[in-house]
Amino acid sequence: MATPDTRLGGRVEIAFGLLAFVLIGTVLALVVGHSPVAPARMDPTSILIISVVAGALTVAAAVIVLRFRLTAARYRKLSDEAAHLRKSLVATETVLKAEPQVLIFWAQGQGPEIITHNLTTVSGLPETSRELLRFGNWLEVQSANDLKAALESLFSTGSQFSVLLKTTTGGNVEADGRTAGGRAILKLRDVVGHRRDLARILDQHRHLARDIRASRALLNASRAVAISNFADRR
Questions:
Q1: How many independent structural domains does the chain possess?
Q2: 44-98 and 4-34 helices, crossing angle to 10°
Q3: Which of 30, 43, 61, 162 has a CA 20 to 30 Å removed from the CA of 3?
Q4: Residue 197 lies inside a defined structural domain of this protein
Q5: How many other C-beta atoms are found inside a 10 Å radius of the C-beta of residue 67?
Q6: 38 phi and psi, to 5 degrees?
Q7: In angstroms, rounded to a whole number, what is the distance separating the alpha carbons of residues 182 and 212?
Q8: How far is CA 159 from its chain centroid?
């Protein structure tokens, strides 16, 4: 079945062919009409001129038709490639949106760009792109520092990472960083299953470590006061 492009190409080629014949006929009529000698008794020079002109017009018409065919073929090829790219883009967007996640990438020499953000199950995760990129505003201090250090290592050496982060409202998010095609990519997703249990354990560990440091500092301060009092008594 002929496509609209094919039918259009055939019509244009026919039009060029008719135009070429009209031009050839017009030139021949002008040459013969201005010749004082009847066409049957024309001299060889006139016949040669007419033949050269007719041949040149024929070649010009053939070149135009050939050029149009090449242009039409290139246009069809580009149209097919564009349609294929559109299908690939739609498929890629479908895959990206199938999983609740946030995808951020950094191209070389450019700022961050958010590809997709449909993660709404994490407490404390900003909805707007501007707030999302301000990691220090919605992540706890330790989590923000961990992510900053991991990103710096990713940018400088390409080291991949996977860390569990905690938001200021108590939500947990998993951050995966890697490089692909000269770009740094950060994926944020909800923590589920055993990863959520691990996040809770790590959170408890942080709290215990903080309490131990506070108790140790208090113990050291009490010890220092006791030593000072003992020295004063002596």
A1: 2
A2: 160
A3: 61
A4: no
A5: 11
A6: -60, 150
A7: 44
A8: 22
- 11 and 74 in a single domain? The answer is yes
**Residue 137's pLDDT band (cuts 50, 70, 90):** very high
Cα angle 61, 56, 52; round to 5? 150
Burial of 91 (0-12, 13-18, 19+ CB in 10 A): exposed
Contact in structure between 54 and 24 (CB atoms under 8 Å): yes
Torsion angle of the four alpha carbons 89, 92, 98, 104, in this order, in degrees rounded to the nearest 10: -100
Shortest CA distance to 71 belongs to which of 111, 21, 23, 13? 13
pLDDT digits (tens, 9 = 90+) for 2-30: 455 545 555 555 565 556 556 655 655 55
The per-residue DSSP string of 22-37 comes to HHHHHHHHHHHHH-SS
Convert the pLDDT of each residue in 85-100 to its tens digit: 787 766 666 666 667 8
User: Does one domain contain both 87 and 12?
Assistant: yes
In a domain, 14, yes or no: yes
Q: Considering the domain boundaries, does residue 124 fall inside one?
A: yes
Per-residue tokens: 117: 């953000």
CA distance 186 to 197: 23
Instruction: Look at strands 161-166 and 112-117 and give their pairing.
Output: unpaired
Q: State the residue range of the domain holding 68.
A: 4-97
